[in-house]
Amino acid sequence: MTQSTPSNEPSSSSYTRAMAAASREARWGFLFSIAIALFFWGAIFLLEGADRVAGLPLWFWWAMLGGYLLSLVAVWGFNRLHASDPDFDRAVEALKKEAQ
Hints:
- Residues 1-7 have low confidence and may be disordered.
- The protein is mainly α.
- Helices cover 71% and strands 4% of the residues.
- It has helices spanning 12-46, 58-81, 88-99, and strands at residues 52-53, 56-57.
- The longest helix has 35 residues, at 12-46.
- The chain is rod-shaped.
- Strands 1-2 form a two-stranded antiparallel ribbon.
């Protein structure tokens, strides 16, 4: 016998959607971390012999400050465009109810 759930209560499909959203966000986070690491090491490699600014090598300014600013922009953009707020608690409770 199949039980119908009220429209305001999540079902196993809401848990599946929540997990899919979490997986998608984890992939984006991993890609952002790779991009920031490549930027950091690229700045060091490409600007290795460059002049000094305020007593520090130019690669330091690009890698440290530029990498920090890049990470801020990446996190802001990710939260603006891709982040979601799935209700895992309700989804898990719905799965428990379905299992009974």
